[in-house]
Amino acid sequence: MECLPGSKAGGSLSAGSCKYRLQTDDNRRWSALLEAHILDFDEDLYDKTIEIIFRKKVREELKFDGLDALKKQMTADVEQVREIFSQAP
Asked: Cα 85 vs. chain centroid, distance in angstroms?
């Protein structure tokens, strides 16, 4: 699932996108993974806690034929996120 969070990182609300999925390890144990991409943000957040506020689901997870297709979709996703946040109250 691709989603549209507002992320409280560095003390302020920032636009971003994220990917949430369930995955299994070699022992068939399930775990949840959330990857967040905060737009126009350049600070080190390792070992810090951030708050993700889910605002809108953008699309389902897709499979890509290659790296170029993935990059093209990621560019389109970022454009869509920027458009949605530009209209937010």
From this structure: 14
